[in-house]
Structure formats: structure tokens, C-alpha cells
Design goal:
Elements: H1 2-16, H2 18-53, H3 63-67, H4 84-88, H5 91-96, H6 107-125, E1 129-133, H7 138-143, E2 158-165, H8 170-180, E3 185-189, E4 201-207, E5 215-220, E6 224-227
Parallel strand pairs: 3-5
Antiparallel strand pairs: 1-2, 2-4, 3-4, 5-6
Helix pairs in contact: 1-2
The protein binds zinc ion (ZN).
Length: about 230
């Protein structure tokens, strides 16, 4: 009863006077806390009891967890600035409901690409790097018309990613990688200086074992692939 009366009193004051409303809002945490205390206490007690009992009692059956999809891949951080999810998300996959989970044994390959190319490049430019396309499942690669031998279809042997750095020239990024990194294939794709530095993107791949080819190429729509990078 007492609580109800207090609440009603506060409501009336608030409606009459906006200043009082603000003042009441400032003071309200205490008032709210005291008003809620009777409601919170039982909740706290309820929570405290199982917590205290948990160590001694057997695990509580968790149907909710079991019915949830099992994530077997080690998702999460690959380096200071890269997470696996950046490489697996795809608008086409989302739109068309195409599964796009990389095989678990391909994780060392993308880890190597991050460690030896992407993170060093990101550090050198000091700007965030966007992953335009990372992993592609066979189905996704078909859906977007990728090459049937695309290294975007990660395996235990290789991984590839299409990258760009907004605020830096993508051709400069390609040249930096060529000069400073070991890679299998490096492609400057659809770069047009007339469009400005954000034009195009850079494809880069790496092999886990064996010698990387260190092959640099340029791709232009209508012209296909030509050897070497465009000059800076
Ligand atoms: Zn690519």
C-alpha cells in the first residue's frame, strides 16, 4: 500500500512540473532502488541458492544448449585486427541461404595468410582493412561465378582473400604486399586510377606447405588476367 501511494504521488508531480520531473529523475535511482528492493530480493535469493549448490550438485541438464546449432569451428580472433567471421560472411550466402563454413583443417591456412600478409599490411598502413571476400564454399563460389579452381575455396593447403584498405590506394597495397610478403598469388583486380585510390581490390593467397609461387597478376574486366601489377 505504501509503495503504491508513493508511486502515484510521484506521477502527479511529474505531470504538473517538468522541472520537478527532471529533479525527480535525478533523485530517482535511490527512489527506484528502494521501490524495487522488495521485488529484487527474492530474485537474488533464488539465484544465490543454485549458485551455492552448483559445485556439489551434478550438471543441470541443458536442453536449450543441445538443441542449439553446434559450432565446431574455432571461430574468433585470428590476430590483433582480424576475426574469422570477417572471412566467412557473405552477402550472397546470407541472401540465398548458402552455408559458408570453412573446413576446420583450413584454419591454419587462413591463419598463415593473416600472420604473414594481412596483419603486417594492416600494421604498415595503419588503417583498417576490409575483407571483401574470404572463404567461399563450393556452392557460394558457383553462385557468384568464381573460378572452379579459386583459392577462396580454402583447404588444408591454401587460403585466399580479397582485401582493400579504405583511405589508402589499393594499388599501393598490392605493391606493398609484393615487396614485403611471401604469397602464392597476388592480383590487382579492377583497379582504375581514374576512379581514385579506393578503386578495385587486392586478391592475395598463400600456401601452407611447399613453395609459394609469388605470382603477381592484374585483372581487368573485359581484358582478363595479365602478368605483373600495374605500375604505381
Ligand atoms: Zn579473390
Amino acid at each position: 500500500m505504501a509503495t503504491t501511494k508513493k508511486k502515484q504521488g510521484t506521477k502527479k508531480k511529474v505531470r504538473r512540473n517538468p522541472r520537478a520531473r527532471r529533479a525527480a529523475a535525478k533523485k530517482s535511482p535511490k527512489a527506484r532502488a528502494s521501490a524495487r528492493r522488495p521485488e529484487r530480493k527474492p530474485q537474488g535469493r533464488r539465484r544465490a541458492t543454485p549458485r551455492a549448490a552448483t559445485p556439489a550438485s551434478p550438471a543441470v541438464p541443458s536442453r536449450d544448449y543441445r538443441s542449439a546449432p553446434v559450432v565446431e569451428l574455432p571461430s574468433g580472433r585470428l590476430s590483433a585486427n582480424f576475426e574469422l567471421s570477417e572471412f566467412t560472411r557473405s552477402q550472397t550466402a546470407s541472401r540465398e541461404g548458402i552455408p559458408n563454413e570453412p573446413p576446420a583443417d583450413s584454419i591454419p591456412a587462413i591463419q598463415k595468410l593473416v600472420d604473414e600478409v594481412l596483419q603486417p599490411a594492416r600494421d604498415a598502413f595503419g588503417l583498417s582493412m576490409n575483407i571483401n571476400s574470404g572463404y567461399r564454399s563450393l556452392e557460394l563460389n558457383r553462385a557468384i561465378g568464381g573460378s572452379s579452381t579459386s583459392q577462396h575455396m580454402w583447404t588444408a593447403e591454401h587460403a585466399a582473400a580479397d582485401i582493400e584498405i579504405f583511405g589508402a590506394d589499393n594499388l599501393e597495397l598490392a605493391h606493398w604486399i609484393e615487396e614485403n610478403c611471401d604469397y602464392d598469388q597476388l592480383i590487382s583486380e579492377c583497379y582504375d586510377p581514374a576512379e581514385g585510390p579506393n578503386s578495385g581490390w587486392v586478391h592475395v593467397s598463400i600456401k601452407v606447405r611447399g613453395r609459394n609461387r609469388k605470382e603477381s597478376l592484374t585483372y581487368q574486366r573485359g581484358e582478363g588476367y595479365t602478368p605483373g601489377l600495374p605500375p604505381l
